[in-house]
Amino acid sequence: MARESKTKFAILGMLNQGPKCGYEIKKELEKSATFFWNESYGQIYPMLKRMVREELATIEVIAREDQPDMKIYTISDKGTEELERWLKLPADPHPVRNESMLKIYFGANTTPGMVKTHITRYRDRMSQQLRDIEDQQEQLDESAEEALFKKLSLRYGELLSEAIQTWCDEAEKEISKL
Amino acid sequence: MARESKTKFAILGMLNQGPKCGYEIKKELEKSATFFWNESYGQIYPMLKRMVREELATIEVIAREDQPDMKIYTISDKGTEELERWLKLPADPHPVRNESMLKIYFGANTTPGMVKTHITRYRDRMSQQLRDIEDQQEQLDESAEEALFKKLSLRYGELLSEAIQTWCDEAEKEISKL
DNA sequence: GGCTACATGTAACAAGTTACATGATTTT
DNA sequence: AAAATCATGTAACTTGTTACATGTAGCC
Questions:
Q1: Considering only residues 3 to 42 of chain A, which have any Cβ-Cβ distance to chain B shorter than 8 Å?
Q2: Of A37, A74, B91, B153, which residue has the fewest beta carbons closer than 10 angstroms?
Q3: B31 and B73 housed in the same domain
């Protein structure tokens, strides 16, 4: 992945919403962006350090008794500029890798019985996701303006899960015909 | 990515359809699996070598004048077993990273005007994809049994592109309200 | 009494991209 | 005449995952 790390921008974007610690960055990313983004601590913590070094953010260390120091990061002017620079650039389409589909594809040639299992599993995963999304949608505070993207993000997950479910239904029928 | 490489299985699955050279593996993957899988030559060629070493495939070298030797790989019994072992395992959901969505998400907080641009671009990409898919669907030989998954794969791409287009339309409207 | 959430990190390792290197043949 | 396709590969580099290490606080 000799390609500019997106982790930096994911963090920059999160910090742009307000000062945060590494843990919060990860949690909020999970909450609001699960359907299209993910970062691991193994990426976040080292990147935050690097970003302070590169002056994209400042760090404030809060000492706590019997617990590790909490480190609050704040985006700098340079960081804001960097974020905006990236925002102006067109997104490059990230290559997809969907293991479920790969197994279904190859399974058709080898163990046709297995294919149904994978399709069923895939559909079940989508149903579960859909239920989770609906729960979250109910809990959503419609009035909050900040919730707009949270709402749109849930809707994104909803539409995708539904589309995949539809595909699973269709695929199952087609395969049954054989 | 200290996680068992899927590249091995992608290649194994391709070779299971018949002996192939590295170039063909890549091309056929692009043709039939673009919507859910991708491999680069930088992954394929070294992996093929390793697979011969591990006796998952055998190699046949065809000498050609003025052109590099062509190397045809054939899956071995051990390779078939390995493929089937993997097929039985449940797929692990691969983490998503969709840069378009990330930009749209952060853009809402920073440069609202930019967001529309990204949404438009994203929708345009999907429209183009949809047109490509339709072209390919027309060229499809319905009678060929081998074409079943090719057909299903195109349908998968179609459903996903449509879902994303729908999302773009909705998102644009919601954002315009602000 | 046990699980989950909070909070930070590192080291080992593997995976994956891109650019480079090379050149014939076929199509437009 | 140029562009695309066929065909193989490597090296440099970065990204990203997982397992480990550590411990408190709060909830059920």
A1: 6, 9-10, 12-13, 16-17, 32-33, 35-38
A2: A74
A3: yes
In a domain, B93, yes or no: no
Nearest CA in chain B to A126: B93
CA-based nearest distance A23→chain B, Å: 19
- Within 10 Å of residue A134's Cβ, how many Cβ atoms? 12
Between A153 and A146, the higher pLDDT residue: A153
- Answer whether A139 touches B (CB < 8 Å): no
Render pLDDT for B48-65 as a digit per residue (tens, 0 to 9): 999 999 999 999 999 988
pLDDT of B105 strictly over 90: yes
Domain that holds residue A139: 99-176
Whether residue B102 and residue A6 make contact (CB cut-off 8 A), yes or no, is yes
Task: Give the model's confidence band at A149: pLDDT under 50 very low, under 70 low, under 90 confident, else very high.
Answer: confident
Q: Are residues A83 and A110 in the same domain?
A: no
Rg (CA), chain B: 21
Alpha carbon distances (Å) from A22 to A25, A46, A70, A177 = 5, 10, 9, 52
Q: Pick from A91, A95, A101: which is nearest to B103 by CB?
A: A91
pLDDT in tens, A7-21: 999 999 999 999 999
Distance B92 CA to D20 C1' (A): 23
